[in-house]
Amino acid sequence: MTMSRFELTRIPIIKKILASRWLQWSLIAITLPVFLLSILAGLFGTPAGSRNFGIVFVWIVWWALLILLMLPFAGRLWCAMCPIPAPGEWLQRRALVQPRERGRLDTLGLKWPRRLNNIWLQNATFLAVALFSVVILTTPMVSALVLALFAIIALSISLLFERRTFCRYLCPVGGFIGLYSQLAPIEVRVKNHAVCVTHKEKTCYVGSDAGYGCPWLVFPAALDKNTYCGLCTECLKTCPLDNVALFARPFGADLLANKGRRLDEAYKAFIMLTCALAYSIVLIGPWSILREMAYAVGSMGWWLYAAGFLAVNLAVVPGIFLACVLVGKKMGRVIASTRKLFVDYAYALVPLGLAAWAAFSFSFVLTNLSYAWQALSDPFGWGWNLFGTANWSWTPYLAGWQGMLQVPMLLVGLVGAIAVAFRTAREQRASPRVALPIVAFCIAFTLALVGLYL
Fold it and tell me: What domain range is 410 assigned to?
């Protein structure tokens, strides 16, 4: 079934903006100074996380914008303005804005190993960061070192490998942004695949005088979901046939179309869903002992926490889900393999996972957002008062209402998960009963979060 969509680049001003080489550079010119200030504040500013610009503006302000606005409505927009890969990309191109001859890149030209052409490493790096998240989110020095490490790795990878290899295969943030971008109501796609067949030069992939080949190592004509499109619009700039466009589309179009489902992405869905629950329990739940264990890195308590965290992410939750798949397979007498059913139905967890992250972030951000006014005026905690807000007191916003507002978010995610589950059963020409255990899993998870928030 073809889902309705509208070509946004039919609007002249939108097309002009997206075709401009200054667009991405201008966005990065805003985010890069903020990123550098966050690192400097973490290294040389106050050790009090609630007063440090790096902690407040990365893990509260940026996180709120990403989870509550960018991901649901603009997909991988952040990837187009992310400052982390920018220095490496500029060195590759030996240019800031205008491309060199035929978009030529300067690297050692190494090819990323084919066996690693997946997001398993991103799954691993995300879990590694998540294990230390309580320390990273509260300790400015550690947060700054982690951000600096990301930048150094991205720069090194850019000098060794072609294009945005770091973003595509290693970035822990990029993995979950890609997963949830499937829900976003925008997409970059070709208008007519037949036109691409007749165009021999393939400038959208190899580059031209007008721009660079796809930095994300994607052939735009084969692009069928948002997961690996960084919204840089280089393909729109380099297509001489005006055959690439930005479209508006229904929410969750990629999930309902059953496009290229894979085990590594399925496991990302489990990791993200489980981490949303774990963060809710550890960071805003009533069990302070868990926060203490998560913070005390290297202690016996932390090792117990780490073992439990990894076990729940990698075995317990996927194991329960697998049991639900097996029950559904027996109920519906499905011929498809268990692996295929496990992977296909795991995508039902994508809307539920984003809703869980939105609900957690909503409470976490509203509780801590007022710290931003202090950090804005005094980013290093050195006694400055640049904008007259350094002495504003901490005030949780919408206190008493947060739980009631989180529930609708979770219900929207649950409805989306149920829709994907039943749609998957129809695709398999199976009885709807196959999806019932998956639906039960999603309902139980939602009720667990509702009970936690209320």
Answer: 261-381+388-453
